[in-house]
Amino acid sequence: MKNLTILLISLFLGTMFAQEAIMGTEAQRAAGKVIYDAQCSQCHGYDGDAKSVGNDYLRPAPRAFTSGTFKFRTTESGELPTHEDLKASIRDGMPYTSMPAWPQFSDKELDNLAYYIKTFSEDFIDYGDVKPIDMPSAPSFSEASAERGRVVYEENQCLDCHGNLGRGDGPSAPTLVDKWDQPIRAADLTKRWTWRGGATREDIYQTFVTGLDGSPMPSYNIQPPEDQWALVDYVYSLGASDEADYATVLAATLVEGDFDISQGPAIFDNVPVAMFAVAGQVIEPGRAHYPGVNSINAQVIINETDIAIMLTWHDMTAETEGVNGPNMQVPDDDVLNEPIEALISDAVGVIFPSEPTVGAEKPYFMMGDKSNSVDLWFADLASSDCDLYVGKGTGSIVQAESDIRIASSFEDGKWTVLLQRSLASENGISFTPGTFTPIAFSVWDGWNKERGNKRGLTSWYNMYVPPLEQVSPVGPMMQYALLTLLAQLALVAYFRIKYRKKEEEVA
Amino acid sequence: MDLFGISFLGLNVVPIILVIAGLVALRMFFNLNTLAWMAAWWVGLYLMLSNGITVPLPGSIVGMFMGIITLALLVYLTTSGEDLEATKDFMVKFFTDSRYSPALLAFLVLLPSLVAYNVYTGMTQQPQAPVFGRTIHPPPPTDITFKGKKIDLVNDDNPYRILKETDPDAFAAHVANGRKVYYQNCVNCHGDDMGGNGMFAHAFDPIPASFKDPTTIAMLQESYLFWRIAKGAPGLPDESTPWSSAMPAWEKFLSEEDIWDVIIFLYEYTGYEPRAKEELH
Description:
The structure holds two protein chains of two kinds.
Chain A: H1 2-23, H2 26-39, H3 41-44, H4 83-92, H5 107-118, H6 143-155, H7 158-162, H8 201-210, H9 225-237, E1 249-251, E2 253-254, E3 274-277, E4 279-280, E5 295-302, E6 306-314, E7 347-353, E8 374-380, E9 387-391, E10 397-400, E11 405-411, E12 414-422, E13 435-444, E14 456-457, E15 461-465, H10 474-506
Parallel strand pairs in A: 1-15, 2-5
Antiparallel strand pairs in A: 3-5, 4-14, 5-6, 6-12, 7-8, 7-13, 8-9, 9-10, 11-12, 13-14, 13-15
Helix pairs in contact in A: 2-5, 4-5, 6-9, 8-9
Chain B: E1 7-8, E2 11-12, H1 13-29, H2 34-51, H3 59-78, H4 81-96, H5 101-124, E3 143-146, E4 149-152, H6 163-166, H7 168-185, H8 187-190, H9 222-231, H10 256-270
Antiparallel strand pairs in B: 1-2, 3-4
């Protein structure tokens, strides 16, 4: 009897302690609630149900903790995350969503927040010991393994969603919705910096072994184990870097002889690429809270007479039918999954000041202003023209005569648009070799019903057009080296003549 | 004919002759003390370097030479008689004694190579894009027109702040509305925790303000914030580059009350106090 009491008491205490290890103490949860109500409830809701003031404006939507569904875990698919997983998600944040990192919280605060978040879902209350999956240490990267990984990638239909080259453009990509019936895009595997589960090879392993619960991204049990790392290596090889290397200057390259954009993108071989960050237009009415494109790459070449610009960006689908235009009307505010009938095509725009700028003064980067207008080179990709518009603000965009030529193509989730014009033109800006010109970009994703002022855009950056004659540095190098040498020799001669003589005299 | 265009051996003859003539004239007609004489040399050499050579010297090289020249002049000026002798003795040895020949040879090879390298990097480097400063906190106008109504930025203050003392419940409602306004409109740029790192922040230059930074709202008056929020970037004066800032003009979206409320929320969230009006006078 006594033994039984002890057994019962210890069992009770045991579960209590186990419970405490998972759910924390009353005081810890209360401390977590204070931070949560002040800093998290705006998005995740006071009751953890994501019913919040921010929800409609944020995509991907803030997680409803009541669902007990978590994307980023070290545990098996369908399991709850570990305590440490929750802390890591909060601390490191969710890049390229409305929830950036929270490095300011101490470890204690993170503990308290994680304990409090668990109270929203009953699943946590009787979740025993969740165990992280075994994480083998990663063998080093090899090309051969990455090559094998391509086969694994195809065999497991990663391609269906992520696309042939991983640009998020697989055939099923446009149909994907998450557990909450919201459209969701398959990640662009070439841009590791946009991932939320981390960009290392171990993170990739974890992502497909555990899956992203709540999203269509499944979990995989790939055998043999070598094939898992082969897949990791292939996915890793799709992107060039972990961090986004955004540019601020677009330097044109002077090429010899004629070029014509009808020759295709090859005329831009070996020309440096500048990548610019694209944001949603959330500045004026016609807001785009969830733009489809997050970066655009540009390259420029010139010769004595012409300038050609190559723009590339990743897009889930090419909308080559329908209409688009910078003056099309849009609702003042973004409407989720806007239900409009009309087909909207993809489009891209390059913006320059209409007149050369003097000093710091420029037109307003959005679309010019009353005193300083911009030239908008606008390419509706359903047509085969590149139009010219003169913008004096988004409410005042007027079409002008255009002599810009265009060639465009779409392949494996990538748009390539080539634009060509003479350096000097009567229709719009003339480019002066040896100078910087402000440049900005806009992208319209037709799939997202982006048109008019609902668009992705960039700030002003600088385009550098080099001088038409490249001075070889060899001449001046020789000249200055020789001058220096002459000065040195003169010094030596001076001392030798003056003092050698003296020495001789002394001797 | 352009006199200044005459060149010989890559040197612009006229400026060089002018400088030399100037120095000679100074020597002959004025009784300069050593200091003034050194200064004259300094200026003369600078003019020769910057104007005397046909392909203009890159700034970095002129700087390098002027550094050496300044050093040499300083050494000359500061060394007392004895030190001067010692220095001279060493130089004489260095330039004449065969013991030093290898070092002298290295000197003769290295310096010109360094100069050539400098010219090379100067000429092949991509030119730097122009950088323009911007005034972050320009003086505000004395009044603005907000949706047809005049708002006096000097005397008007947040009409709802007083509620903090008089009616805490009503005040809490304004904070709650401000919070809603913030998370529906500002979070994309100013961030989920006001740190200025919202999901679009990295695409803008200048970057969105961090309200946690003690040099933003903590040192501004509420009426100043009202102006900045209502009129946004387009309302800035030229010295603050209105053409490049992404800060929206919120009068297009928000009511007067919404703006005062979001201002209250910014202070309540960060724990800062607005700067009081009195401090101005």
